[in-house]
Amino acid sequence: MKTTYYPNETRGTTDYGWLQANYSFSFANFYDANREQFGKLRVLNDDIIAPSKGFGTHPHKNMEIISIPLSGALAHKDSLGHESIINTGDVQVMSAGKGIKHSEYNPSTSEATNLLQIWLFPNKLNVEPRYDQKSFNIEDEHNTFITVVSPKDTLENTLWIHQDAYFNTASIQENITINYLFRSENNLAYVFIISGSVVIEEVTLNEKDALGISETKNIVVKALSNARVLLIETPK
Predict the structure, then answer these.
(1) Residues near 9 by Cβ (< 8 Å), separated by ≥ 6?
(2) How many CB atoms lie under 10 A from the CB of residue 111?
(3) pLDDT tens string 78-89
(4) Which residues contact 17 (CB under 8 A, 6 or more apart)?
(5) Which of 20, 85, 94, 150 is disulfide-compatible with 65, CB 3.0–4.6 A?
(6) CB of 83 closer than 8 Å to CB of 76
(7) CB of 113 within 8 A of CB of 74?
(8) For residue range 144-172, what is the model confidence (pLDDT) as tens digits?
(9) Among 123, 125, 120, 80, which residue's Cα sits nearest to residue 100?
(10) Phi and psi at residue 53, in whole multiples of 5°?
(11) Please, what CATH class does the domain formed by 2-234 belong to?
């Protein structure tokens, strides 16, 4: 197994007042030649959006976009005619394809929204844009990984994207160890610690730390405290 450790404090940060952004990969005013992408994973932004604020209508093209609220909610509106609220526990996917415009706002007047927005390069260009969202029960990920996003026509009860990638979440109790078995031994894994602390391959990871993993078929995760983990399996 090969690992690359990405401490929380090495992420790019920007404070716009209404938006506090943390960038795991080169984005906006943050550039790191060693962090342009990880496999097909291009963006993992950890955003805190102030009450009643958000992103005005803007375009995307040929990118698979996954949004995961960690706290609070997000109001979504797009050029396909969708208007919806994405709550904590929901996952949203959007295939930008040949072009889509959307806006995202925090609908609360008092509570900030903490959101992960993640972009992957697609395996097909200029597809018809599409949008979907789904609620997941956090109790289902108790001491196990559940898959919330997968490639099209592979798994039931997940959202799908135009890429051979899998998004998995787990809530692990202190001192419990769980395993993740790769779908393909040629894939990579990017592990992001949403909360708590874990150890993987003798590397201790705390909240908002990340670990890139390759050259293995299995990942063993031990929780040092109650922890929630996002594991993205992506092609190289």
Answers:
(1) none
(2) 13
(3) 999 999 999 999
(4) 50
(5) 94
(6) yes
(7) yes
(8) 999 999 999 899 999 999 999 999 999 99
(9) 80
(10) -115, 170
(11) mainly beta
